[in-house]
Please model this.
Amino acid sequence: MCDTIVVVNPDGVLFGKNSDRDANEAQFPEWHAAADHPGDTVVRCTHMEIPQVDHTYATLISRPFWMWGAEIGTNEHGVTIGNEAVFTKEPYAKNGLTGMDLLRLALERASDREEAVGVIVDLLERYGQGGGCGFEKPSFTYHNSFIIADPGGAVVLETAGKRWATEEVVAGVRTISNGLTIPGFADEYRDRLRSRVSACDVRTALTARGASGASDAMALMAVLRSHGQTRWPDYNPINGTLGMPCMHGGGLVASSSSTAGWVSDLASPTHWITASSAQCLSLFKPVRVAEPVELGSVPEGDADPASLWWRHERMARRVMQDPETLAALFLPERDDAEREWLADPPTGQEAFDRGSKLLDEWSARVDAAATERDVRPWYARRYWSKRAVPA
Model:
């Protein structure tokens, strides 16, 4: 479950997205250079192969470790895309391109938002969408919607099987979540029960209200960090934290956790990424497509103390046992660092290097102050006990 936001105003385009997936489904940024390909080349996507094109553009993507496709990404032309799982009345195919595959393929093949829509629609009609999309439940599948932005504007593209509809974002805020929203198309194809369980309408209202009047990247960071009406999560026994943009799992029936956060100022263009979960506790770092960053060990589904994602995850899970007490140990410093970088962005490598040192310092403070206290309800504690991270 996810949220994607775009703000189109006279000064430019702002884009933001939280990727919400299974709790241990590590996600990480990858830089891919532009490349030329021989005519008989194929590209192996998550579940199927398709013919490669002659040239692919340079991209920066945020990819769940086990997939070929990406949840969020941008390319050398400033085309920036986020996708959402949506639940529809159309049949779900056992094989096909995943929404994440479609997103990455569009970034590799499109130089503006209109071309990206054309790439996705062509691939959708030719190959269909389908196949397992879950980490904990490999057979879990869904259809997809997208916000596709570039420096000139944005388009919402929603799908149901091989059917699709678009809506141009002319000005102001547009948000999408885990339910179809385009009038007419949503009326015909939306699966109302599954969309309701996902709490998509609750979140789109929250993100639209939060992003109203947003004029810089920091405003969208605040939206992605929101827990709705409360400072810290108010867990629901049925769907955990699905009712808030910054998710922390915890439901008995349905759950999801924010595993990556991304904000783009396409006028620059500068992209701000966390490369970690729990955006309320994470540090957004500035990066650019043309400047790859060395991040060390690539995270996977098991705890890896050498990877940035799992180092942050260990701290975040401890903090969320008593966030009111433990988050206060470092959030003021995090906010100061982000304000400093927004005023004068460093290189991506400088930001990630400093962020890594800060994470070590913050983790040490949390370890020293943490007790056995856990303020979460029993069902949230139970959820996380099954997904424990080694100390």
